[in-house]
Amino acid sequence: MSANGLHDEIRELNLAYLMLTQHMLRDDRAAAIYRLGIGEEVADMLEGLSSAQVLRMASSNMLLCQFRFNDTMLVDLLSSHGRERGAAHLHAAILAAGRPVESLA
């Protein structure tokens, strides 16, 4: 894939992520903050972005979303295919909830 093609893919993903984030925050703020792993201050900023600001941010060559896990246990729990899948996903959610939220600092 060319550099321009990769940048286009990142822009599309960023735009979808920002639009989904704003929708989630407007629909159920508390659940969105938990699911996104962000703090109140970041939520305020993202929710208040204008359409032009969303487009500018999305056009960055930096991926704006990130995985909330950095260990193999969470990856294994989230990718579980067995009969205990529901329990594994619940366990993963509990582990993720114990992680600190993102801040602007």
What fraction of the residues are assigned to beta strands by DSSP? under 5%
The CATH homology group name of the largest domain = Flagellar transcriptional activator FlhD
Number of domains: 2
- Computed structural class: mainly alpha
The 3D shape can be described as globular
The pLDDT mean sits at 82
Could you tell me how far the N terminus lies from the C terminus, measured between alpha carbons in angstroms?
35 Å
Tally of helical segments? 6
What share of residues is helical? 55-70%
Q: Which CATH class of the largest domain? A: Mainly Alpha
Structure description:
About 10% of the residues are buried. The chain is built from six helices and no strands. It is globular and about 45 Å long. It has helices at about 5-25, 30-35, 40-45, 50-60, 70-80, 85-95. It is mainly α and about 100 residues long. The chain folds into two domains: about 1-65, Flagellar transcriptional activator fold; about 65-105, no CATH class. Helix 1 runs antiparallel to helix 2 and helix 5 crosses helix 6 (about 85-95). The mean pLDDT is about 80. InterPro entries: Flagellar_FlhD (IPR023559), FlhD_sf (IPR036194). One of its GO terms (molecular function) is DNA binding.
